[in-house]
Amino acid sequence: MANDGVNGGINTGRRRFLTATTAVVGAVGVGFAAVPFVSSWEPSARAKTLGAPVDVDISKLDNEPGMRMIVQWRGKPVWIFKRSSEQLAALTTLDGRLVDPKSINPDQTPDFAKNESRAIKPEIAVIVGICTHLGCSPGYYPEMQPQAFDAKWQGGFYCPCHQSRFDLAGRVFQGVPAPSNLAIPPYHYTDDSHLVIGVAPGGAA
Fold it and tell me: Over the stretch 132-182, which tens digit does the pLDDT of each residue have?
C-alpha cells in the first residue's frame, strides 16, 4: 500500500506539473499568437514606403535623348522624360483637338503645373502613367509623325486598351473614352539634376 501511496504521490505531482506546464505554454502560445494580430494593425514598412516621397536623379535624361524614366510612387508609375523644342512648339498647336487644353480640372493638374507644358520646367515632363479611362498604362509614342491611330500625330501616348490618346503633356484628345488629362503628381526640384515626387513646390503634399 505504501508503494501505491508513493506511486499515487508521483502521479499526483506529475499531474500538477503537467497541468501547470500546459497552462504556462497555453498562455505563452496566446501571447505569440497575439503578436502578429496586433502588429497587423500597424502599417507595414512597404506600405509606408509606397506613400513616401521619391527622390529621382534625372541627369541621365541629358545623355539619352528620347529616354523615358519610370519610377513608382504610391504604387503608380510616374513617367519622366525630356521634350525637344520642336515637341514643345507642337503642344501649342493642339488646343482645338483636346478636351481640356488649359488643364482646368484641378484633380489632374496642380496649380504649379497649370501651363502649356504642364510642368515646372517645360522641357521635363513628370506625369502619372495611368489612363483616366479604366486604369491601363498607355504606350509612349514620342515620334512626331503619322501613326495608324492618328494621321496628325505630334507625339504623345496611346492606350491600347480602348484607344485613348494623350499628347506629350498628358492632355487627352477629344472623341476618346478617357474623360480627362493624365494626372500630374506633386513634385519639386532639389537641384538641376534631382527632383522629389510626392511634395509640391513650397512643401505641399
Answer: 998 899 999 999 999 999 999 999 999 999 899 999 999 999 999 999 999
In the block, cell 491601363 appears at 136
CATH of domain 48-197: 2.102.10.10
For 97-133, letters b (16+ CB in 10 Å) and e give bbbbbebeeeebbbebbeebbbbbeeebbbbbbbbbb
Q: What distances in angstroms separate CA 84 from CA 42, 116, 123, 143, 160, one per listed residue?
A: 46, 14, 7, 11, 25
Cα separation of the two ends of the chain: 84
Whole-angstrom CA distances from 127 to 7, 37, 180, 204 are: 81, 38, 13, 18
Pull the grid cell for residue 24: 504556462
**Global pTM value:** 0.75
Q: What is the DSSP letter of 126?
A: E
Q: How many CA atoms lie within 13 A of 143 on its CB side?
A: 7
Q: How far apart (Å, rounded) are the C-alpha atoms in residues 113 and 106?
A: 10
The count of residues in the chain is: 205
Reduced to 3 states, what is the DSSP secondary structure of residue 18?
A: helix
